[in-house]
Amino acid sequence: xxxxxxxxxxxxxxxxxxxxxxxxxxxxxxxxxxxxxxxxxxxxxxxxxxxxxxxxxxxxxxxxxxxxxxxxxxxxxxxxxxxxxxxxxxxxxxxxxxxxxxxxxxxxxxxxxxxxxxxxxxxxxxxxxxxxxxxxxxxxxxxxxxxxxxxxxxxxxxxxxxxxxxxxxxxxxxxxxxxxxxxxxxxxxxxxxxxxxxxxxxxxxxxxxxxxxxxxxxxxxxxxxxxxxxxxxxxxxxxxxxxxxxxxxxxxxxxxxxxxxxxxxxxxxxxxxxxxxxxxxxxxxxxxxxxxxxxxxxxxxxxxxxxxxxxxxxxxxxxxxxxxxxxxxxxxxxxxxxxxxxxxxxxxxxxxxxxxxxxxxxxxxxxxxxxxxxxxxxxxxxxxxxxxxxxxxxxxxxxxxxxxxxxxxxxxxxxxxxxxxxxxxxxxxxxxxxxxx
Length: 437
Ligand code: NAP
Ligand code: HSE
Description:
The chain is α/β, with parallel strands linked by helices and 437 residues long. It has helices at residues 20-31, 33-40, 71-75, 93-102, 112-129, 146-152, 167-179, 183-192, 201-204, 207-220, 240-249, 310-330, 368-379, 410-421; strands at 11-16, 44-50, 67-68, 80-85, 106-109, 133-134, 158-164, 231-232, 251-261, 265-276, 288-295, 299-306, 345-346, 353-363, 384-393, 398-405, 408-409, 426-435. α5 links the parallel β5 and β6.
């Protein structure tokens, strides 16, 4: 027990899950007892740890009597004031979080899926019970993002968020850019190193990033952005050729999560995008994450760091715990008050306006360019910024074109691409990507 707090009663902690993150949390709470007791004003005491298999060998040594597979051992312990959920996935994590709040406990979670899908509902339960749910670790691992959006940037009208918020895909894209590797080769390298899961779908299809964007955009724009509202497109269609052409044009390719305030709605989208090579986001490589927030008072603010990993994520979880425990020790924990903007609809992707990169193969003969620019310009009103003929394929007398457009509406661009693809002189659409910044 702590010497730092003159016999003050401990604040009891229940830990749900003791894997990568939970193991880090247990290790740090058990090794920094005195420091944290001084910070909080009362000692912290882990009283129970819920796991699937209490008999499993664990990297972090804890008293075996703390481990249980019966959730009631945590929820029925009146000495537990704060419950930390680091199980992950939707269920039973969601049910446990709800039960914890309904029982009047403060809650800390690292669970992006549950917070993206059920965050507003859980915050409402917390409010009704006079407690709170903190979720700094759910986005960007060790990078402080939720607290700045909730608190430090509150005076601003946030105009946009642009983020590299998935380390696995940023690692894959970095390998593709540096080595000229194709997607499948870079994915295999990421899997061999343990960055990508054996089933990488959530990461490579932009689903994980969409969860994180839904959480950030809801806070930044004070509206409820649900995961289903977020357009997401993954990285699987990218080729080494797209990286080569993008670099020649002065761009990197990144999987971006973009939230933007419009007049009466917000944009929320995740997709690969061309980013100018001199932009800060273009220089964020490997497994690192970065979030660029633009506020009307602050201007651009840039957060960068490790978006995953046991200790960076533990930093965020334990930071939330210390804040809430300090509040409990003082008798007045700070609580976040959700204030929704009444004009908070999410703009359908079809209505989003952005610039485009279009790569296509065409017959190398007179009149073809005119036919394509006719469809884009005359039929759909899409203004072309540049056209470059990249490569000639002697065997079938086709050439590769890269077209960069000015800003256009997504629905128009998609319709124009369909029409262009149907032209007799067009051998195929290689790829089309959005351009950001
Ligand atoms: P993990 O290594 O898979 O650990 C999950 C833990 O939960 C294990 O201890 C497991 O028990 C326990 N568990 C799983 N299902 C359970 C159930 N039905 N009942 C009771 N216990 C159960 O996961 P993690 O990587 O630590 O991730 C935890 C959370 O942190 C997730 O929400 C994740 O998205 C988030 N997060 C993780 C990272 C990261 O770098 N890992 C970064 C940011 C956020 P056993 O040990 O007995 O199997
Ligand atoms: N799969 C996630 C990533 C882990 O690659 O960033 C952190 O949420």
